[in-house]
User: Which sequence fits this backbone?
């Protein structure tokens, strides 16, 4: 493909957003809609600059990110461990599998009030909710990955009379790796979702969700648009990061 | 041993621990109410008719939001999957918007359409729209090229090509999208009701929280699990019926 042929889809992808921003600017310029309901792109941009320069925005982003990572760091490894246990041990899978599947049916946010009573509405409650949210997809995918180890691999281990630990490290884990990585990637996305939820529902604290609530309370649409844009960008970055890490960690899958 | 026989010991053990902990007073009643108390709370809301009414309200919201989101998602996802220009034009913007967790839209949607039913239905519709679009577009794109060639060799017109070949071949992926859409709708409903509501299951939970009635909260968690399981099971049933031809062909 030539450079121009490759650039074409990118240009077309930019067309609609640029057009929408143009219409947005046009509507704002006519003053048909009050600026407090629909602030002009320039106003939103100015707000963004103001938040970056003088405001607490950097701190908010950092607070949300560190909360998401703290919850992820607790929930995801626990989920991977639990999932591997369920997938590698038939007994564990049959004992704990059903109750885990039943637990997954409960809508995530139903746990928010419960966790806020157990851990409080502050930082501990938020991180507990994020960890709990990250736990489930990490478990499911690791479980799937570990349960799908081809039978010939196990036979090979037996033929080589590998010890249990060697079988685990040399055969089972590498073979379950794709599932584990998918689980970690999904857990990261879920942790981000839970972070926003925790910040919206639990006690007010620095963070992007808190700023969204603030925008609603003060009717500051410009602030909400800024916060949503940053949320989208960070979400996109998380997704890309996870996918890239997954590709790099299993080079043999691409070949 | 049957599946059931191995599935039961852990729940029974957990329940026994819960019961024992309550009987021995290991944890304060405010942190972990006794099983009997939770059962009483459940029976009480059911006896007053509140529970049934709130379940109905919640189901209605999910139904409306999911219907709007799924239909719109089928149309938009179909357009994305079938037309290259549509994909080039709209895919990047859609993917960017899809990165925002559905519930993050709630504060903005409240300002635009108010705090009532419209807010809940809008947010639920968006939450189900995203996975449906992804599933439909992916499913259509993944239809094997030889199948399309077959259609062209049989000189199908574009409509026949889509309705007889592309769509049936994409049905499994479409259903994956629909199932995820329904699951998202359910998750988002609870979030929206927790956020702002005066009826519905999410409201009962947040009421329990405000009154520090953990028994009511736990009872509602149970109900949410059962309703979620039922919804998921119902859609799986529809899926199996619609996909019977595939099982037979296999």
Assistant:
């Amino acid at each position: 493909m030539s450079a121009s042929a490759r650039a074409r889809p990118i240009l077309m992808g930019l067309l609609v957003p640029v057009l929408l921003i143009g219409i947005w600017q046009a509507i704002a310029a006519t003053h048909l809609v009050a600026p407090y309901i629909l602030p002009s792109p320039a106003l939103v941009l100015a707000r963004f600059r103001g938040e970056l320069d003088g405001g607490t925005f950097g701190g908010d982003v950092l607070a949300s990110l560190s909360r998401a990572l703290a919850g992820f760091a607790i929930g995801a490894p626990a989920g991977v461990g639990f999932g591997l246990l369920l997938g590698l041990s038939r007994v564990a899978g049959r004992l704990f599998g059903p109750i885990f599947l039943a637990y997954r049916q409960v809508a995530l946010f139903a746990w928010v009030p419960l966790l806020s009573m157990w851990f409080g509405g502050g930082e501990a409650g938020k991180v507990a909710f994020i960890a709990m949210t990250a736990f489930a997809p990490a478990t499911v995918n690791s479980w799937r990955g570990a349960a799908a180890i081809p039978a010939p691999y196990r036979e090979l281990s037996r033929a080589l009379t590998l010890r249990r630990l060697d079988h685990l490290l040399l055969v089972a884990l590498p073979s379950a790796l794709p599932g584990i990585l998918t689980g970690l990637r999904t857990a990261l996305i879920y942790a981000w979702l839970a972070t926003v939820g925790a910040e919206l529902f639990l006690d007010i604290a620095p963070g992007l969700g808190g700023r969204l609530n603030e925008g609603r309370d003060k009717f500051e649409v410009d602030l909400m648009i800024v916060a949503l844009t940053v949320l989208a960008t960070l979400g996109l970055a998380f997704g890309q990061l996870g996918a890239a890490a997954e590709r790099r960690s299993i080079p043999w899958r691409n070949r | 041993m049957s599946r059931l026989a191995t599935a039961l010991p852990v729940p029974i053990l957990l329940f026994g621990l819960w019961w024992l902990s309550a009987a021995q007073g290991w944890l304060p009643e405010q942190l972990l109410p006794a099983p009997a108390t939770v059962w009483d709370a459940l029976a009480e809301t059911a006896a007053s008719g509140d529970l049934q009414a709130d379940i109905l309200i919640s189901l209605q919201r999910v139904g409306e939001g999911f219907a709007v989101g799924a239909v719109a998602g089928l149309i938009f996802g179909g357009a994305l999957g079938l037309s290259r220009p549509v994909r080039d034009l709209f895919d990047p913007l859609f993917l960017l918007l899809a990165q925002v967790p559905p519930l993050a839209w709630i504060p903005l949607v409240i300002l635009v359409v108010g705090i009532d039913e419209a807010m809940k239905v809008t947010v639920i519709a968006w939450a189900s729209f995203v996975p449906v679009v992804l599933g439909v577009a992916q499913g259509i794109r993944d239809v094997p090229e030889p199948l399309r060639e077959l259609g062209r060799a049989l000189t199908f017109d574009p409509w026949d090509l889509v309705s007889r070949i592309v769509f049936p071949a994409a049905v499994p992926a479409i259903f994956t999208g629909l199932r995820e859409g329904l699951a998202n709708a359910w998750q988002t409903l609870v979030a929206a009701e927790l956020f702002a509501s005066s009826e519905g299951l999410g409201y009962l939970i947040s009421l329990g929280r405000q009154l520090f009635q953990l028994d009511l909260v736990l009872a509602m968690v149970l109900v949410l699990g059962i309703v979620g399981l039922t919804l998921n099971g119902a859609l799986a049933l529809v899926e199996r019926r619609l996909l019977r031809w595939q099982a037979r062909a296999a």
About this structure: Chain B has one domain: 49-249. The CA atoms of residues 32 and 214 of chain B lie 7 Å apart. Chain B has a mean pLDDT of 88. DSSP finds twelve helices and no strands in chain B.
